[in-house]
Design a protein that fits this description.
Number of helices: 9
CATH topology of the largest domain: Aminopeptidase
CATH superfamily of the largest domain: Gcn5-related N-acetyltransferase (GNAT)
CATH architecture of the largest domain: 3-Layer(aba) Sandwich
Radius of gyration: 18 Å
Helix content: 25-40%
Number of strands: 12
Strand content: 25-35%
Structural class: alpha+beta
Number of domains: 2
Length: 264
């Protein structure tokens, strides 16, 4: 068991977010990463109704940057034609929550913060039967799978994220059956050695076969080969049991998304 504290691991689960937002701003000529006063905001007008994409992270040592910047954020999203945007909070922060509520934001979702040092991971699970794993760079297919997993039209994320360019800081893993991608995950490698996990999805109709475990295990092994020493993610309640089996810790905190949605 690593001597990393849960506070240190929790910081990983939040502090990866600005890197994620900057990276995904490169996926469309119409997207931009707006940065000021410790804030990082992804403005993606090609996906105007999803606060999951149009997100804001802030420097936790400078909360006044967020509370003082809400009006500027609202104006920037409004001018870009974005209908829904959100602020990611590090667990409960009452003063900031009051400021967000006063600015018209509401709590939308509360993913579970999870993380682990690599020595705590269990990566010896058998792979799902009858499938193959690869690391092809295919953002189009990844975004289609994620949209379907959320019950959305398969084109929902394509204009904003379907042309995400490759880079040395990121890789994708896919589980395929008969050549068709049926599960995926995206892995972002940070300078501090953390492997941040995003966009884990399994195609509806292919669940309960161990595909999520298979794609995660493959990606985590690849991250180890590339020198990563910790890993972090934000999990849905349904996803928590899978990640616990792989050795992640439930850090007992949430990464809360507060959403502003344009009326009408």
């Amino acid at each position: 068991m690593s001597d990393l504290t849960e506070t240190q691991l929790l910081a990983l689960a939040y502090d990866d977010l600005p890197h994620f937002l900057r990276r995904f701003a490169t996926a469309s000529d119409r997207s931009v990463a707006l940065e000021f006063d410790g804030l990082t905001a992804l403005i993606a007008p090609d996906c105007p109704d999803r606060s999951l994409i149009n997100g804001v992270a802030f420097d936790r040592s400078r909360p006044e940057g967020l509370t003082g910047g809400l009006e500027r954020l609202a104006s920037a999203y409004d001018e870009a034609g974005v209908n829904a945007w959100g602020v990611w909070l590090y667990d409960r922060e009452p003063e900031i929550e009051r400021a967000l509520a006063a600015a018209g934001l509401k709590l939308d979702s509360s993913p579970v913060a999870m993380a682990a040092p690599y020595e705590d991971l269990r990566l010896d699970w058998p792979a799902a039967d009858g499938v193959e794993v690869d690391f092809e760079w295919d953002p189009h297919t990844m975004m289609v799978l994620n949209a379907l997993a959320y019950g959305l039209p398969e084109t929902e994320f394509l204009a904003a994220l379907g042309a995400l360019p490759p880079g040395d800081d990121m890789f994708m893993a896919f589980v395929r059956e008969g050549g068709e991608a049926i599960a995926c995950a995206l892995f972002l490698m940070l300078d501090d050695g953390d492997l941040a996990v995003y966009f884990v999805a399994t195609k509806p109709g292919s669940r309960s076969r161990g595909l999520g475990r298979t794609v995660m295990q493959a990606g985590l092994r690849e991250g180890a080969a590339r020198g990563c020493t910790t890993t972090s993610l934000q999990a849905s309640e349904k996803g928590v049991p899978l990640y616990l089996k792989l050795g992640y810790r439930d850090l007992g905190r949430k990464i809360n998304l507060w959403e502003h949605r344009r009326a009408g």
